[in-house]
Design goal:
The chain is an all-beta fold. It has no helices and twelve strands.
Length: 83
Amino acid sequence: MSQVHATAILGKNVELGEGVTIAPYVVIEDNVTIGARTSVGASAFIGSNTTIGEECRIFNGASIGTIAQDLKFRDEECSLVIG
């Protein structure tokens, strides 16, 4: 069973694997998949269209899955896959 803190905000179509732990004040946008036994630390942000594998650790205050920090980025459709 996954544990999601009451202050966490989860978007639409968020899939949590078995044993996932979501800490306080985490924000997870739409269309995110988090694999089994992964932990997400306090105040982390996970952007839309992100897939995180099993047994990963996202640390406190991390911001992942956001738009590319590249001057050539022109609002193309993008996603992030970890683990």
